[in-house]
Design goal:
Elements lengths: L1 E6 L8 H12 L3 E6 L5 H11 L4 E6 L1 H11 L5 E6 L5 H5 L6 H14 L2 E9 L2 E3 L2 E5 H11 L8 H16 L7 E5 L4 E5 L1 E5 L5 E3 L2 E3 L11 E6 L4 H12 L3 H4 L4 E7 L1 E14 L2 E21 L3
Parallel strand pairs: 1-2, 1-3, 3-4, 4-16
Antiparallel strand pairs: 5-6, 5-16, 7-10, 7-15, 8-9, 8-15, 10-13, 11-12, 13-14, 15-16
């Protein structure tokens, strides 16, 4: 089988030793090619070129951002995508059961390839940019923008950095006291105004250490999108929402200041001025209008055995 390994050497958990071991495992029984990426958008171009060149499987050793870019490049093709955890959180890889250690994950991936463990899944699409597990509008995108400015600290403690940055962003860098945008579903329902919304294609939303943060328990890659809209972002909502997410997200679903809609195929987000947005943990800047939809049967992934 012809396989391309995309490596992001700047990813938090990627080391020279792990890369060598992963290449040794993947190249033992397959024709392995290796490409490096370290800049935004590069993995999309590499993956798209690999699909056009007849590569059967693209394996990504990197974080969620690199994996998401590769998925964007492979969408609509028959080339399969396989994640190896090289980032600090690896939300999508962990959500489908990939081993936490990249070398062990590579060994299991070889088994999956031998067994033909392939599966077609749906993707979210935000203004043409596909995403694997979620798009964030408002506060979390502002947090990611601040984290990216301090990315050199991620190797020393990513999750404490995110917690500290969330508090700092809420206090100093993001106006959460007023609605930032309005969300309207494709069927015409106006869900309402918000300063923070999450559009989920998979669960969990993220991880805090080894613990999943569950915002949309009914979300999944086999069903259309789930939209979670926060009508308020006061301190009690922020802390209560975090506590609920750590405990499975059921209380959050029924909170009076939260609106959640499942099986959503399309929605439009209209800003009251520019608002920040991100997909799969990649900050994509500010916009005043965003159209998001769900594309079924969009991508082949390799499932763990």
């Amino acid at each position: 089988m012809r396989i391309l390994l995309i490596v992001n050497e700047t990813a938090t958990a990627v080391t020279a030793r792990r890369r060598v071991l992963v290449q040794r495992v993947m190249g033992a029984d397959h024709k392995l090619e290796v490409e490096e990426t370290s800049r935004r958008g590069h993995a999309t171009r590499i993956a798209r070129g690999a699909a056009l060149d007849g590569v059967e499987v693209v394996v990504v050793l990197g974080g969620d951002g690199t994996l998401s870019e590769a998925a964007d490049g492979l969408a609509g093709t028959s080339t399969a995508l396989a994640p190896l955890p090289g980032g600090s959180t690896n939300v999508f890889a962990r959500s489908i059961g990939v081993a936490y250690d990249p070398v062990q994950a590579a060994e299991r991936l070889v088994v999956s390839l031998a067994r033909g463990n392939f599966r077609r899944i749906g993707l979210g699409v935000a203004d043409g940019r596909r995403f694997l597990f979620h798009a964030g509008l408002g506060l979390d995108a502002a947090v990611i923008a601040q984290v990216e400015r301090r990315s050199f600290l991620k190797r020393y403690g990513t999750h404490p950095l995110f917690v500290a940055t969330t508090v700092d962003t809420w206090l100093r860098h993001y106006d959460h006291r007023r609605p930032r945008f309005r969300v309207e579903l494709g069927d015409g329902e106006v869900v309402g105004d918000s300063a923070f919304a999450i559009v989920s294609n998979q669960r969990p939303w993220a991880y805090l250490g080894r613990r999943p943060l569950m915002v949309a328990p009914e979300a999944g890659i086999d069903v259309p999108l789930t939209v979670t809209l926060f009508r308020s972002l006061d301190l009690s909502m922020l802390l209560g929402g975090a506590a609920s997410a750590l405990q499975g997200g059921q209380r959050l679903m029924h909170h009076p200041k939260v609106a959640q809609r499942t099986h959503v195929r399309s929605l439009t987000v209209t800003g009251y001025g520019p608002f920040p947005w991100q997909v799969d943990g990649d900050y994509l800047g500010d916009t005043e209008r965003l159209t998001i939809s769900w594309a079924s049967d969009a991508l082949t992934i390799v499932m763990p055995p």
